[in-house]
C-alpha cells in the first residue's frame, strides 16, 4: 500500500514539474511598424521591424521594467566649475525570445518622402526572464586588447578581439551571423574538439589574440574582419552558462573560414539549448564592417 502511495506521489510530482515547465514557455505574438529614413536599407528596416515585433510580443505577455539613473556631468567654463545632472531612463522587457513559430510576415509601405515603412507580424515562443542566468561582461574590441578599444564599427581589415569576464565558473561559446544566412563558430577555436570554452570566475579574458591566449583553450584563431560590401552588418551571439552544453552541429566550410552551419539550424539549436538550460545567458552584439576607410 505504501509503495502504491509513493508511486502515485512521484507521478504527480513529475506531472507538476512538467506543467511548471510548460507554463514557463508561452506562445506570444505582436505587430510592430518601423519607420525608416534615407539611412536605412530595406534589410535594416526588416531587421528593426522584426526585433520590435519580438520585443512588443514579450512586453505584452510579461511586461516591462523601467530603470532610472542619474548621471553627473562636470563642465568647466570661464565662470568656474559647474556640475549638471541628467536623468536616464531605460525600459527593458521582462522576458526573452526563444524561437519563431512560422515565418515572420513583413508588409512594406512608403511615406510621402519615399522612405520605407516596414510592418512585421511575428509569432513565437518566449519565457519570462529568470534570475538563474548569471550576468557577464562582454565587449567587442577593435584593433586593441583592452576595454578602451571597445567598438562596434569596423573597417575592412581591422583586427577583432573579444573581452569577457564572468562572476562564476562556467562555459561559453561565441557565434557570428551575417547576411549570408550562415552562423560561424568563433569560439571554441577551430582546432578545439570541445563545444565550449571553460571560464574561471573573476578572470578577464581577451580572445582572438595570441599573446593573450590561454593554453587550455587551444591554438588561438586571430581574426580580421573583412568585407567586399560598402557596409556589412553582422551579429555576435555570446553564450555563457555554469553548466556545460552541447555545441551546435557545425562543419568546416572552406579554407581560412571558421566552422559553420545554416542560420535556421543554428536558431533551432539555440532555442532548444535555452529551453533545456534556464541558466544559459545569451547576449548579442551587432557590428558593422565598412569597406570605405
Explain what you see.
20% of the residues lie in helices and 44% in strands. The chain has 3 helices and 17 strands. Strands 8, 10, 11, 12, 15, 16 and 17 form a 7-stranded mixed beta sheet that branches. Strand 2 and strand 3 form a beta hairpin. The protein is globular, with a radius of gyration of 22 Å.
Layout: helices, strands, pairs:
Blueprint (H helix, E strand, L loop, with lengths): L1 H23 E11 L6 H21 L1 E14 L2 E14 L1 E6 L4 E6 L5 E13 L8 E6 L10 E3 L2 E8 L4 E8 L4 E6 L9 E3 L5 E3 L15 E3 L5 E11 L18 E3 H14 L4 E10 L3
Parallel strand pairs: 8-17
Antiparallel strand pairs: 1-6, 2-3, 4-6, 5-6, 7-9, 9-13, 9-14, 10-11, 10-12, 10-15, 11-16, 15-17
How many helices in DSSP terms? 3
Task: Note the gap between the termini.
Answer: 80 Å
- What is the alpha-carbon Rg in Å? 22 Å
Could you describe the largest sheet, including whether it forms a barrel?
Answer: 7 strands, mixed
SSE order in H/E notation? HEHEEEEEEEEEEEEEEEHE
Mean pLDDT, to the nearest integer, reads 79
Query: Total number of β-strand segments?
Result: 17
Helix percent band: 10-25%
Low-confidence stretches: 6-23, 66-79, 81-91
Q: Shape from CA axes?
A: globular
Structural class: alpha+beta
Strand content: 35-45%
State the oligomer.
single chain
